[in-house]
Amino acid sequence: MTQVAAKATVGASAPMAVSAPRGLVSWLLHPAGLSFSLTTDSGWAVGLMTSYIPRIGHLIWLAEPTFEHIPTVEEAAAIQRWRWPVLFPLDAAIRRKIVKPIGMIRIPPAMQRIPLMRSGRKNMGWQNAVLLDTGGSRPSGRATDPATPVYKVVNDTRLREMLTSGWRPENEW
Fold it and tell me: What is the pTM assigned to this prediction?
Protein backbone atom coordinates (compact mmCIF):
# COMPACT_ATOMS: atom_id res chain seq x y z
CA MET A 1 0.00 0.00 0.00
CA THR A 2 1.09 3.53 -0.71
CA GLN A 3 0.11 6.63 1.22
CA VAL A 4 -1.72 9.21 -0.88
CA ALA A 5 -2.53 12.72 0.28
CA ALA A 6 -6.24 13.48 -0.01
CA LYS A 7 -8.37 16.29 1.33
CA ALA A 8 -10.96 15.41 3.90
CA THR A 9 -14.44 16.37 2.78
CA VAL A 10 -15.86 17.17 6.18
CA GLY A 11 -14.77 20.75 6.81
CA ALA A 12 -11.04 20.04 7.24
CA SER A 13 -8.52 21.68 4.99
CA ALA A 14 -5.45 19.69 6.06
CA PRO A 15 -4.53 16.66 3.93
CA MET A 16 -5.01 13.23 5.43
CA ALA A 17 -3.28 10.00 4.51
CA VAL A 18 -5.32 7.41 2.65
CA SER A 19 -4.01 3.96 1.80
CA ALA A 20 -4.37 2.84 -1.80
CA PRO A 21 -2.86 0.00 -3.83
CA ARG A 22 0.28 1.11 -5.71
CA GLY A 23 -1.33 0.38 -9.10
CA LEU A 24 -4.28 2.61 -8.26
CA VAL A 25 -1.94 5.43 -7.28
CA SER A 26 -0.12 5.02 -10.60
CA TRP A 27 -3.37 5.15 -12.55
CA LEU A 28 -4.57 8.21 -10.63
CA LEU A 29 -1.30 10.09 -11.13
CA HIS A 30 -0.73 9.03 -14.74
CA PRO A 31 -3.98 7.92 -16.40
CA ALA A 32 -4.28 6.36 -19.84
CA GLY A 33 -3.90 9.02 -22.51
CA LEU A 34 -0.89 10.71 -20.91
CA SER A 35 1.58 11.75 -23.61
CA PHE A 36 5.21 12.40 -22.74
CA SER A 37 8.49 13.27 -24.42
CA LEU A 38 11.90 11.64 -24.18
CA THR A 39 15.19 12.93 -25.57
CA THR A 40 17.04 10.67 -28.00
CA ASP A 41 20.04 11.07 -30.30
CA SER A 42 17.60 11.68 -33.16
CA GLY A 43 15.46 14.31 -31.39
CA TRP A 44 12.49 14.38 -29.02
CA ALA A 45 10.40 11.20 -29.12
CA VAL A 46 6.74 11.14 -28.08
CA GLY A 47 5.24 8.32 -26.05
CA LEU A 48 1.62 7.61 -25.14
CA MET A 49 0.59 5.59 -22.10
CA THR A 50 -2.42 3.47 -22.98
CA SER A 51 -2.69 1.00 -20.08
CA TYR A 52 -1.31 0.23 -16.66
CA ILE A 53 -0.69 -3.46 -15.96
CA PRO A 54 -0.40 -4.06 -12.20
CA ARG A 55 2.91 -5.62 -11.08
CA ILE A 56 4.34 -5.16 -14.59
CA GLY A 57 4.23 -1.51 -15.63
CA HIS A 58 2.81 0.96 -18.11
CA LEU A 59 2.06 -0.07 -21.67
CA ILE A 60 3.34 2.75 -23.84
CA TRP A 61 3.37 3.33 -27.59
CA LEU A 62 6.11 5.36 -29.28
CA ALA A 63 5.37 7.75 -32.11
CA GLU A 64 6.99 7.40 -35.52
CA PRO A 65 8.05 11.03 -35.95
CA THR A 66 10.62 12.72 -33.73
CA PHE A 67 10.80 16.46 -33.09
CA GLU A 68 13.63 18.99 -32.99
CA HIS A 69 11.94 20.66 -30.00
CA ILE A 70 9.88 19.60 -27.00
CA PRO A 71 6.54 18.67 -28.60
CA THR A 72 3.35 20.43 -27.57
CA VAL A 73 0.16 18.62 -26.62
CA GLU A 74 -1.33 19.71 -29.97
CA GLU A 75 1.59 18.14 -31.85
CA ALA A 76 1.29 14.94 -29.81
CA ALA A 77 -2.47 14.77 -30.48
CA ALA A 78 -1.87 15.17 -34.24
CA ILE A 79 0.45 12.15 -34.51
CA GLN A 80 -0.95 9.57 -36.91
CA ARG A 81 1.79 6.91 -36.98
CA TRP A 82 2.88 4.92 -33.94
CA ARG A 83 5.76 2.44 -33.89
CA TRP A 84 5.13 -0.32 -31.33
CA PRO A 85 4.13 -0.85 -27.70
CA VAL A 86 6.46 -1.78 -24.88
CA LEU A 87 6.24 -1.96 -21.09
CA PHE A 88 8.02 0.91 -19.35
CA PRO A 89 8.27 2.16 -15.73
CA LEU A 90 6.63 5.52 -16.52
CA ASP A 91 6.08 6.59 -12.88
CA ALA A 92 9.79 6.28 -12.09
CA ALA A 93 10.80 7.99 -15.34
CA ILE A 94 8.54 10.97 -14.58
CA ARG A 95 9.66 11.13 -10.96
CA ARG A 96 13.33 11.11 -12.03
CA LYS A 97 12.64 13.67 -14.78
CA ILE A 98 13.82 11.23 -17.47
CA VAL A 99 10.63 11.89 -19.45
CA LYS A 100 8.58 15.08 -19.54
CA PRO A 101 4.77 14.83 -19.42
CA ILE A 102 3.20 16.71 -22.34
CA GLY A 103 -0.50 16.36 -21.57
CA MET A 104 -3.58 14.23 -22.05
CA ILE A 105 -4.54 13.21 -25.59
CA ARG A 106 -7.14 10.87 -27.09
CA ILE A 107 -5.90 7.31 -27.52
CA PRO A 108 -6.35 6.21 -31.16
CA PRO A 109 -8.97 3.42 -31.43
CA ALA A 110 -6.43 0.85 -32.70
CA MET A 111 -4.34 1.37 -29.54
CA GLN A 112 -7.12 1.34 -26.92
CA ARG A 113 -7.01 -2.40 -26.23
CA ILE A 114 -4.03 -4.19 -24.75
CA PRO A 115 -2.39 -5.85 -27.78
CA LEU A 116 -1.45 -9.49 -28.15
CA MET A 117 2.27 -9.75 -27.45
CA ARG A 118 4.81 -12.53 -27.78
CA SER A 119 7.26 -13.91 -25.28
CA GLY A 120 9.93 -16.56 -25.20
CA ARG A 121 13.08 -16.78 -27.28
CA LYS A 122 13.93 -17.44 -30.89
CA ASN A 123 15.74 -20.70 -30.12
CA MET A 124 12.87 -21.99 -27.93
CA GLY A 125 10.02 -20.71 -30.07
CA TRP A 126 7.90 -17.61 -29.61
CA GLN A 127 4.60 -17.90 -27.78
CA ASN A 128 1.74 -15.42 -27.92
CA ALA A 129 0.96 -13.85 -24.56
CA VAL A 130 -2.26 -12.14 -23.56
CA LEU A 131 -1.56 -9.44 -20.98
CA LEU A 132 -4.19 -9.34 -18.27
CA ASP A 133 -5.36 -5.96 -17.03
CA THR A 134 -5.26 -7.43 -13.51
CA GLY A 135 -1.53 -8.19 -13.89
CA GLY A 136 0.46 -10.99 -15.41
CA SER A 137 -0.16 -12.79 -18.67
CA ARG A 138 -1.42 -16.07 -20.03
CA PRO A 139 -0.09 -18.05 -23.00
CA SER A 140 -2.15 -18.01 -26.17
CA GLY A 141 -0.52 -20.43 -28.59
CA ARG A 142 2.50 -20.30 -30.85
CA ALA A 143 3.42 -16.91 -32.31
CA THR A 144 3.53 -16.84 -36.11
CA ASP A 145 3.68 -13.11 -36.92
CA PRO A 146 7.13 -11.44 -36.59
CA ALA A 147 5.42 -8.04 -36.24
CA THR A 148 3.71 -9.06 -32.97
CA PRO A 149 5.07 -6.78 -30.22
CA VAL A 150 7.58 -8.35 -27.84
CA TYR A 151 6.50 -8.68 -24.21
CA LYS A 152 9.34 -6.93 -22.42
CA VAL A 153 9.87 -4.26 -19.81
CA VAL A 154 12.55 -1.77 -20.88
CA ASN A 155 14.36 1.00 -19.04
CA ASP A 156 14.98 4.46 -20.49
CA THR A 157 18.45 3.57 -21.83
CA ARG A 158 17.14 0.57 -23.78
CA LEU A 159 14.12 2.56 -24.96
CA ARG A 160 16.41 5.27 -26.38
CA GLU A 161 18.55 2.61 -28.11
CA MET A 162 15.45 1.03 -29.65
CA LEU A 163 14.24 4.40 -30.94
CA THR A 164 17.60 5.56 -32.28
CA SER A 165 18.45 2.26 -34.00
CA GLY A 166 15.07 1.95 -35.73
CA TRP A 167 14.32 -1.26 -33.82
CA ARG A 168 11.16 -3.16 -34.78
CA PRO A 169 9.63 -6.33 -33.25
CA GLU A 170 10.65 -8.19 -36.43
CA ASN A 171 14.30 -7.59 -35.42
CA GLU A 172 13.85 -10.15 -32.61
CA TRP A 173 12.14 -12.90 -34.60
Answer: 0.80
